[in-house]
Specification:
alpha/beta; about 240 residues; 3-stranded antiparallel β-sheet; single chain
């Protein structure tokens, strides 16, 4: 069985973070504290910085200024974090082969690999498609392979960047059901979505982003019933906010 490193990456804290590329600030003065618990869902208009926040929090990119810490530390090897993107790249292997490769890279002992592979495929509902070439699966099935690969690393925090944006309603529901199960198992989910209905269904906490900053962060029920700002209220009602 893969053993988690004993040190936690939570809380994950971004403090006054700015990221500039060619003198253009993708985020500016961004601050957010991500703690253990129910899913944190990032919402906001296109270009508000949701994807950039995920990459900063994952440690995939470093801020131009400001500070990102994981469990109070300025550095973390990332073994306790995983990410799933909107259009994951499938290896030229079967669905099971994709997950087996992830287990190998995660350091799973060979003696445990077969059992864990079967468990993870069952968890995402892909047992019957285990031998199917991953690149021939539907978009929803490929997204479940991507989730299975992430779970192979036994993450403490799982980031998701618009994971159902290109999926039909049935596939979206299947992915959401899997995400609920992952969250209930104790994994912290941090997800960006443009779908307000999905945010209502999954979020424990909402972080509303606007113009490269976290404009408002609140428990989901409070955000949707009594947002603190006019911009958040407009966005929650489906109005265009820029």
């Amino acid at each position: 069985m893969t053993m988690r490193p004993p040190v936690s990456d939570l809380p994950l804290v971004l403090e006054d973070v700015t990221l500039a590329v060619r003198d253009v600030a993708l985020v500016r003065g961004l601050s957010l504290r991500i703690a253990a618990g129910a899913p944190t869902v990032l919402i906001g208009p296109n270009g508000s910085g949701k994807s950039t926040l995920i990459r900063l929090a994952m440690g995939l990119i470093a801020p131009t200024s400001g500070r990102v810490t994981w469990g109070g530390r300025d550095a973390s090897d990332g073994r306790r974090r995983a990410v799933v993107f909107q259009r994951p790249v499938m290896l030229r292997r079967s669905a099971a082969g994709n997950v087996a490769y992830a287990l190998h890279t995660a350091g799973c002992a060979r003696a445990e690999r077969t059992r864990r592979l079967a468990d993870i495929l069952a968890r995402v509902g892909l047992t019957h498609l285990a031998d199917r070439p991953a690149r021939r699966l539907s978009g929803g099935e490929q997204q479940r392979v991507a989730l299975a690969r992430a779970l192979a690393h036994d993450p403490e925090v799982l980031f998701l960047d618009e994971p159902t944006a290109s999926l039909d309603p049935a596939s979206t529901k299947a992915v959401e059901d899997i995400l609920r199960g992952i969250a209930q198992s104790g994994v912290k989910l941090v997800m960006a979505t443009h779908d307000l209905g999905q945010a209502r269904r999954l979020a424990g906490e909402i972080a509303f982003m606007l113009r490269g900053r976290v404009h408002e962060c609140a428990p989901a029920e409070r955000f949707f019933t009594a947002p603190a700002t006019a911009e958040a209220a407009a966005f929650a009602h489906g109005d265009i906010v820029i």
